[in-house]
Amino acid sequence: MDRDPIVRLRGATKRFDDVVAVDALDLDIYQGEFLTLLGPSGCGKTTVLRLIAGFESLDDGEILMNGTSLDGTPPNKRNVNTVFQSYALFPHMTVFDNIAFGLKMKQIGSEVIREQVTEALSIVKLAGLEMRRPHQLSGGQQQRVAMARALVNKPQVLLLDEPLSALDYRLRQEMEIELKHLHRRLGITFVFVTHDQEEAISMSDRIAVMNAGRIEQIGTPTQIYEEPENMFVAKFVGEINVFEGRILDVHNGSAVVDVHGQSFKVQNRKNHLPGQGVKVLLRPEDIMVYKEEEADPAYPYLSGTIEDVIYKGKTVDLIITLDAGETVFVTQFFNEDQENVIYRHGHKVIIDWPYGWEVVL
Amino acid sequence: MERGQRFRNAAIGLTLVWITVFVAIPYLLVVLFSFLTPNPAGTVTWEFSLESYRSIFSPVFLKVCQSSFALALGTTALTLLTAYPFAFILTRIPEYIRRTLILLMIIPFWTSSLIRTYALIIILKANGLVNGFLMGMGWITEPVSILYTQVAVFIGLVYTLLPFMILPLYASLQKLDRRLIEAARDLGARGWHIFFHIVLPLSLPGIIAGSTMVFLPALGLFYIPDLLGGARSMLIGNFIKDQFLATSNWPLGSAASVLLTILMFLMLGWYFVVSRRANQGDMKELA
Asked: Residues B249-257: what's their mean pLDDT?
């Protein structure tokens, strides 16, 4: 993959009255990648998209596309297209006319338009629905028309503003896979905005987690999920358990941390110093659960009581109240070898985790 | 619950009585009269006749129709051209200015339209404000005669009916989804293209509603031609009025009224067809 940034935001700032929606944001978007802007509503992710599309103008900083500033370039002159949230299809036009709109604006001959619209329709698997009007289509079909209407213009960058949020769960999962295929097939850069972390993780090459107009962390889905750089990212992406601790000792990239009177050995990636208060973060699936009688005083553990057992089919979720008072959320995958290990409400258990699976902040 | 139910029934009942007494019965009388024989002494003779409908297609009435339609069409066109930009701007300005402007537009309604028409006479007459201004600026030396011409009638109709065009246009433009305009820009459309391909087609229901509300009254507002156009300006409204008050031919006046009503229903039908098509954008799923 060519690693030149196709779109580059430098200190991009946008204010609405006194509210800073996008705050001195730096972001490089590379040719051909699937980049997701992930964040809670109001974090500025849609504004970033609208700045790239040209619907909003910058108060400060600049946006470059292929190395040239986009300052003063209106939306109709930018080589990007948008798939709008809830699609914004033209209600008075047929599917064909909706998709052909961009080409007509470019004064392309009607033969060529017919050809390209037909091709776009087959890409999104809607061949044969040319003469329908948007209101005669299902939500999923409208979504596809919106995709085709943008893609037919062969943009360098496709901007997608929560395009799946209006679809029901099943359809959304289907469209996630299809979007991913489409991205791979067309090789166009996708910039995708969502507040749904599952969507972000399953589709993206890279995720930029946004909060209050800034990027908290940018990286691959694995990096974001496994190595969150701060509490915001850790808590926003997936479930996580947080233990308060204190560093007792450090040596050679690892550290000993005290959690509820037990000394756990952890990795010391952030170079914490002895005496420092830290947070030890653990994903529910990274925690191990044992029966109380399996406790070995040679190893550290936390003891507690099973509060709830939630059977999920593929997994079992356990809610455990530690003797120290905290509630811990644990996800266990079924283990064929341990079929007889069945937890019940009220069982006394102990938990620990493999060295290095934790994140210490 | 019980009380709410009773109130609802009472409200609906009262409205029905109201409409029956003040709309349906008088109108059915008009329809009935149009099929009877005129009585020169006033009212009608109870004898079935199609004579009124036959004489509606006489050259005299057709001539009245022709000039009346021309004037009403002109009025509709001019109000549309002036109201559209105004209504469009109304949707784009801050709330408090918008409210003020709409209020200013509505205030004249607090005065009788008849009195406002008299006020127009003062403005348009030979030594009135318009001529005073034009002569004061030295652009003309003799007063132009505006009052008691077709032009004065035209001005009077446009002035009186303009708000009826602005309000439906405003309502329909206000409803227009801004994201559709953004989508059009995103797809490469510039100003005029956006207007002709998106804004204009989607505001068509407002255009038709406004045109209906201007065109039909423009055919029927008899007192404006009476006051501003002098004695010889005959419109359908004046024609109908004369049949009842001057020549005592109630059946003929009724037949002309029925004709206007049919025209109104045709325009309403057109409006419903077009607005249904334009409003289907709201993500509705039809089977």
From this structure: 90
